[in-house]
Amino acid sequence: MLTRVHALAGLAAGAIILVFWVSTVAVELLGTPQQVAAVKTAILWGLLALIPALMATGGTGFRLARGRRDAPVRRKKTRMPLIAGNGLLVLVPAAVFLAWRAEDGRFDGAFYAVQGLELLAGAANLALIGLNARDGRRAAGRG
Ligand code: HEM
Q1: In total, how many domains does the chain have?
Q2: Are 135 and 76 in contact (CB under 8 A)?
Q3: Which one of 47, 76, 77, 127 is least enclosed by Cβ atoms within 10 Å?
Q4: What's the 110 CA to ligand 1 centre distance in angstroms?
Q5: CATH at 48
Q6: What is the pLDDT of residues 17-43, one digit of tens each?
């Protein structure tokens, strides 16, 4: 049961980051400045789902990992602070900054620098979450 909650929360977090990433690229390529601003605002609201999903994944994960010292679990434990740190120190501040600039219609060099950084950090987190899901399957004896 706890494993299922854990896996679902982790997959939800990954799916939310994927939606943020794809909608960011799509609206940058195809959208009007107003549509870019609307996506930026929607991403801020989406953080209200992403952050609890990541907290639930981490919380249940560390509980499931109690007393386990196998390699997949150790790797997952090492990755989680990177995922959380990347999220809290890069993705959240970037989302706030970009929403604020887009709301003001200020699409300048700083906007695109932070936008690039956000896409890179988002891709890194997606990769780390994917690796944690793969090691999770292994840890559960299903890999
Ligand atoms: C975003 C990060 C994470 C994702 C996406 C994730 C995803 C998953 C998935 C998909 C499974 C397999 C469930 C199954 O096949 O039934 C799993 C299992 C597991 N995860 Fe995670 N996980 C994450 C973080 C963590 C963390 C931080 C820990 C703590 C070390 C952890 C510990 C475990 C353990 C111990 C299992 C095996 C449970 C069992 O044997 O029943 N996970 N995880």
Answers
A1: 1
A2: yes
A3: 127
A4: 37
A5: 1.20.120
A6: 999 999 999 999 999 999 999 999 999
What is the sign of the dihedral through the CA atoms of 63, 69, 70 and 73? Answer: positive
Q: For residue range 87-121, what is the model confidence (pLDDT) as tens digits? A: 999 999 999 999 999 999 999 999 999 999 999 99
- Answer for the pair 134, 14: CB distance below 8 angstroms, yes or no: no
| Neighbour count for residue 76 (Cβ, 10 Å) | 26
For residue 70, the model assigns a pLDDT of 97
Residue with tokens 């899901």: 133
Q: Which two tokens stand for residue 35?
A: 């549509």
| Ligand 1 neighbour 7 (Cβ under 6 A) | yes
Domain of residue 65, residue span: 2-139
Distance CA 27, CA 10 (A): 26
| Alpha carbon distance 46, 87 (integer Å) | 13
Residue 3 in contact with ligand 1 by CB distance below 6 A: yes
